[in-house]
Every structure is written in structure tokens, then in C-alpha cells.
Amino acid sequence: MTGPAADFAQLPLSPQTLANLAQLGYAQMTPIQAASLPPALLGRDLIAQAKTGSGKTAAFGLALLANLNPRRFAVQALVLCPTRELADQVTTEIRRLARAEENIKVVTLCGGVAMRGQLASLEHGAHIVVGTPGRIMDHLERGSLDLEALNTLVLDEADRMLDMGFFDDIAKVARQCPAKRQTLLFSATYPEGIERLAAQFMKDPQQITVQAQH
Ligand code: ADP
Ligand code: MG
Q1: Domain ranges across the chain
Q2: Which residues approach ligand 1 with their CB closer than 6 A?
Q3: By alpha-carbon position, which residue is closest to atom 15 of ligand 1?
């Protein structure tokens, strides 16, 4: 299934990032990575659909890291996830992908976790925030999270977030992001609400679907 086109080395990634991917044991891109990384690294908005376990986190993770300036200590990427468990997994994967770069700080902000620690983390600053829509909204309303420097917004597991009734929170968060940004939407399925999200919050998104192959 995989051929030379699935080699990470074909992507405009730094030598350190390529070496880190090799160390992580990522020898080849998965099909969703091979389909979504080239347009994502060109700055396109994407609606990417592929089943669970297909490597979607690295697809958006490498794209948001490519947009990031480590020397600018401000929140440049926000990843919205449906649950705390998924947000923790995304944070872990982004930290692994980022470990070859300069110190990149990732903060997780989810409901059901005490505010105090989250407020302290935000005061120390972060490059990347991963969290659930409700809690991210709380921080925006309190003024403890500033998205002025944001350049990448990721909606991960968008189908599940819609199932859980997060449309309005996602909409409110997206409205607080700078208009000039890249928006990447990842989903395992393609329910009707996704088109509404795309129409309201994405710019000419490229649609990518990778069918289950085995
Ligand atoms: P999804 O979000 O599509 O459900 P994940 O991003 O959680 O999938 O990835 C599933 C697993 O595959 C993770 O353990 C991840 O580390 C691993 N993985 C991702 N990309 C690659 C790759 N190119 N080569 C090998 N393993 C990978
Ligand atoms: Mg995932």
C-alpha cells in the first residue's frame, strides 16, 4: 500500500523533525498523513476523514508545529478535542513530535480539572493549547487565555464533538480566533454538522477522505 510517496522525507520538514520521526519508529506516512500533510504544510484548510487509529494526530500535529515560532512565547495553536482522555493523548503525541525542536510548551485545558492549576500554567505561558471546548470557552470568558497570536485551529474528532453538543462552544471559540489562520478539521465520520462548521469557520477547505483499507 505504501510507496515512495509515503516517505516523510518528501515533506518540507526540518532534518531534526525527520530524525525525530525516525526515532519514534514512524518509517512511512500513514495514508491519511500522506494525503493531508502536503496541502496542510502549504497552509490549506482541511477537512480530513479517516478511521480511528490511522495517525490523524501526527497529521495535524506536524502541520501546527510547522506554523509555530518557538521564540514567540504565545499561544499559536489550539486543538479542540471532545474529552479529557483524548486531549491528554493529543498532548502526549504533540510533545513527542515536538521534542526535537526548541522548548515548546503544550498546556492541556479540560473540564473536570481544577481551574487553579490551569490558570497557573497559562500564566507561565504556552505555545500550544489542547482542550475541551467548554473549558476553553471558560478561559476565554475569564480572559485567562489569549488567542491573538493563534495561527492554527484544529478541530479533532469533530464528529464526536458535534455528538456531544459542542457546536455552539466550538463556534464561540472559532470566533475569538484571528481570521487569518489555518483551520484543520479531523473526523472519523462525516455527519451533516461538519459542513455547517466548515461553511462558517473554514476557508475553501480541501476535503480528504481515506477509506478503511484493511
Ligand atoms: P487517530 O487519531 O487517527 O485515531 P492516532 O493519531 O492516535 O490515530 O495514531 C494511532 C497510533 O499510530 C499512535 O500510537 C501513533 O503513535 C501511531 N502512528 C501515527 N503515525 C504513525 C506513522 N507514520 N508510523 C507509525 N506509527 C504511527
Ligand atoms: Mg485521534
Answers
A1: 31-209
A2: 25-26, 29-30, 33, 50, 52-58
A3: 55
Q: Which grid coordinates belong to 207?
A: 476535503
pLDDT confidence of residue 5: 63
Give the residue, by CA position, lying nearest to ligand 1 atom 10: 53
Residue partners of 98: CB distance under 8 A and separation at least 6:
61, 65, 104, 106, 128
Ligand nearest to the CA of 30: 1
Beta strands at 46-49 and 106-109: parallel, antiparallel or unpaired: unpaired
Pairing of strands 182-187, 46-49: parallel
What number does CATH give the domain 31-209? Answer: 3.40.50.300
| Helix, strand, coil percentages for the chain (3-state, nearest 5) | 45, 15, 40
Query: pLDDT per residue over 164-186, tens digit each?
Result: 999 999 999 999 999 999 999 99
Which atom of ligand 1 is nearest the CA belonging to 30? Answer: 23
The answer to whether the beta carbons of residues 81 and 160 sit under 8 Å apart is no
Mutating to test ligand 1, I would choose from 10, 18, 21, 30 the residue with most ligand atoms within 8 A of its C-beta, which is 30
Question: Any idea which residue has 472519523 for its cell?
Answer: 188
